[in-house]
Fold:
Amino acid sequence: MTMMTKLLGAAAGLALSAGAALAEPALIFDLGGKFDKSFNEAAFTGAQRWAEETGGSFREIELQSEAQREQALRRFAENGNNPIVMAGFAFGNVLSEVAPDYPDTKFAIIDMVVDAPNVRSVVFNEHEGSYLVGMMAAMASESGTVGFIGGMDIPLIRKFACGYVQGVKAVNPDATVIQNMTGTTPAAWNDPVKGSELTQAQISQGADVVYAAAGGTGVGVLQTAADEGILSIGVDSNQNYLHPGQVLTSMMKRVDNAVYDAMEAGTDLETGINVMGIANGGVGYALDEYNEDLVTADMRAAVDAAAEQIAAGDLTVHDYMSDNTCPVE
Amino acid sequence: MDKMPHWVDIVVIPLISLLLAAILSALVIIGIGEDPVAAAKLMIDGALMRSAGWGYTLYYATNFMFTGLAVAVAFHARLFNIGGEGQAMIGGLGVAVACLYIPWPNWGIALIGATVSAAIFGALWALIPAYLQAKRGSHIVITTIMFNFIASAVLNYLLVNVMRPQGAMDPATARFPETTHLPTFQDMFATAEMPLFRGAPANVTFFIAVAACVLVWLLIWRTRLGYEIRAFGFSESAAKYAGIRPVRITVITMLISGGLAGLMAINTTMGETERLILNATEGAGFIGIAVALMGRSHPFGVFLAAILFGFLYQGGAELALWTNIPRELIVVIQALVILFTGALDNMVRMPLERYFVRRRKGEA
Structure:
């Protein structure tokens, strides 16, 4: 009899703990690590904000090896964590295999489309945000030459570059845009020294505004631009504060909002493709006390007008990834 | 006469080294305010108490067996092959070429083809340093480590410019066709009522690794070539006097070593990711050095040490999943084990040796 009660008690305890775990979302960072001052950190900020506002808690893991991608997904799913959010396109391959095994668990993947009934694919219209900062760059430039420094040479970053060039040319059709990619491997996301060298090279070619879409490499771009007295444009998070008065603006990609929304929705997470553009606050430019002296009233008026047109659908910015070409150079 | 008993050498010394590493790791965990006993329980639970945990432990162990054997074989000829990493990368290229460009009818034949291809690619990558060592006297430590960098650059170039499918973001090849899918432990052992090894990456390659352990043992201690390798390792001049050709032994040993390292790629590339990615080796080539040191260059020792390191990797993943111990500290814990079992081996060995020698002399 006592044995029986003990067993029942244990079973009840297990059921309770399982119930408690059910509400807990999980967040998986990519190999770059949680504190990269850019993409992963934005995801962490969003989760942190959710935890502070709701008093909830979440599980998180920074991966150490490729094999752990699948492992982390499965272990969190088996533990009852729901929804499971992952930051980065590199999870796409694994998630498309794992998701069907856990039909009751909701997954959210950022920057990649995975077609499964229980997956929310969050993609951003980076070309729209880049278009806006491109316009600002062209208006702030005195030499008529602006620069773009990308991280790893992948279609996603070319999408940034293409939107940026379109924005520049919309303001000044005769402007020159110098484009450089930092590298072709994931190491290019975290190479501030190379970023700095590329910035120097672009300055010597006459660029007086540079846009860095390069993760951790961008820190070197912004630093060199500030040292040399030219303007720079940050990316993903608001990086204006890094060099007050010397960063023209930042192209905000609200990864934090995407993570926040997914955790907020909890188990009721709406699946399917979720496009975050200008219209729903997914991308935009940053304006705060650090750059308000740099952004003139004309600039704001022009950019805000363009943003409204894009949101309303009157102005279309070409998406590089739709056909792997860019209409302007 | 001035030797300690064999069992001390192979059992007591590794155990004491492990114990020291465990104590230091515990101090590190206490230092960041976590509970070391709970952490140890979590590691053991996660790595050894669930079949899926074993699936990961054995998956990592398979990698370490191949690279450990590679280092061990070279050690017997007193060649320090630290190029396992590069040889495994190029081995991966061999696997990818075999899997992508040859239409295999089923996985069994594909496995044989990929095995041969991986071994040849890995062996050829070791051939150049071997030749330079044998003919030119360029030190093998320097050349093999340089070849690691060349291998990574070659792979980088090929994945980015040649083998990447159109429009893909990852620097990786396309997925291998279905017919090259290796059966995982889940496919082999799981039944409807016993869902064993769910999702774990351990696959049939594990048995190849075990077979490689046996074959290496046969080679080193039961063949003429193995005898020559060992003789060459003990004394090059004596070996020469006995008619053993140094160039031949150096080159053959390194070919075997490189081939074994290359075989690792079957496990990671064909067995797990099923496409070739940039960092498929993930440092296993270097872990192999620690595995070979700890295993005393004996295949059975390598087998056990590989499983220990597999446990550390999988246990580390469990720590990362369920505790707030940052991943950097998990690497520290893994490094402590390597430090004590590999690099600081003599710290435990010398006092013990003195103790046993003195005791023997006392007896005599």
